[in-house]
Specification:
By secondary structure, this protein is mainly alpha-helical. It contains five helices and three strands, in the order αβααββαα. The relative contact order is 0.10.
């Protein structure tokens, strides 16, 4: 998550959840724990009163700076063990799966249940 906030300084909870492909409520809980432990601050968005912005604290940045090289080393070892080409292909396939799942999820969000329909997911008649 810290890399997501590093890119822009702060990020809305919902954007972090989408970017990390987790439920918004789960993201909210995780961010709450990070705030409790002093790694992030959470404040209302100045432009959208419904949104909360997450920002790394100095302690959060220090932790990120410690963790980033460890993550890079883990990625390097994974590629060493599995081959750079295989690792790249796996990442590509996983991104494709996530993209397809997001599209499917977005489509299902726009369906309205019609109690008179033959199937529960038929679009509502105008």
């Amino acid at each position: 998550m810290s890399m997501q906030t590093d890119e822009v300084g702060s990020a809305p909870v919902n954007a972090l959840a989408e970017r990390l492909d987790i439920e918004r409520t789960a993201m909210g809980k995780m961010v709450g724990f990070l705030e409790r432990d002093g790694f992030v601050t959470i404040k209302p968005s100045p432009t959208d009163g419904r949104s909360r912005l997450v920002e790394l604290t100095n302690e959060g940045r220090r932790l990120h700076d410690k963790a980033a090289p460890l993550w890079s080393e883990a990625q390097r070892k994974f590629e060493e063990l599995n081959g750079v080409k295989n690792a790249a292909e796996l990442r590509k396939r996983l991104r494709n799966i996530v993209t397809a799942m997001r599209r499917r999820h977005r489509k299902s969000e726009h369906r309205i249940v019609d109690c008179n329909a033959k199937t529960p997911f038929a679009p509502r008649r105008a």
